[in-house]
Design brief:
The chain is mainly beta and 156 residues long. The protein has one domain: SET domain (Beta-clip-like). Helix content is 8%, strand content 29%. The strands form four sheets. A three-stranded antiparallel beta sheet has the order 1-2-3, with no helix packed on it. A hairpin with a 2-residue loop joins strand 9 and strand 10. The protein contains two helices and eleven strands, in the order βββββαββββββα.
Length: 156
């Protein structure tokens, strides 16, 4: 059942055709407009590695957002609707880090009914292989989908 966000008016969480839950616009967001903040417990990278995975049945799905200085926001603990924003290779939003806080902003006009997305731009300590790309497969459906949520500059 769709749930309107108590955090920021104008969005709701509901089932996504991309993956699981998604965040959808209920109103127009202008380019550069802050939609919501990615929040959760701030932990060290070492603590995130200790906690990983959130779900052993789905080890490549987490609510972690790495910020500078080897800190991580764990959206599973104290998070909000932002943790449900899915990846896209052609996203309509982008994260903006300001003083260690992550704000999700519109990259272009976002219209009612559109699913919010940003490029996860993931990197890994593992060598880049077809198996790793498949583990982080992208289902965004964008015309220029690169087939993986891994960063286009990631070389392993």
């Amino acid at each position: 059942m769709p749930r309107a966000s108590p955090v920021k008016p104008g969005i709701e969480v509901r089932r996504s055709s991309v993956h699981g839950q998604g965040v959808f616009a209920l109103r127009v967001f202008a380019p550069g407009e802050t939609i919501l903040e990615y929040v959760g417990e701030i932990i060290t990278l070492q603590e995130a590695l200790r906690r990983h995975p959130h779900n052993p049945q789905d080890p490549h799905h987490t609510f972690y957002f790495h910020i500078h200085d080897d800190r991580v926001i764990d959206g599973l603990h104290g998070g909000n609707d932002s943790r449900w924003i899915n990846h896209s290779c052609q996203p309509n939003c982008e994260p903006d880090e300001v003083k260690g806080r992550i704000f999700i902003k519109a990259r272009r006009p976002v219209f009612p009914g559109e699913e919010l997305s940003f490029d996860y731009d993931l990197v890994s300590d593992e060598p880049l292989t077809d198996a790793l790309k498949a583990a982080y497969a992208c289902r965004c459906g964008a015309r220029k989908c690169r087939g993986t949520m891994l960063s286009s500059s990631f070389s392993g």
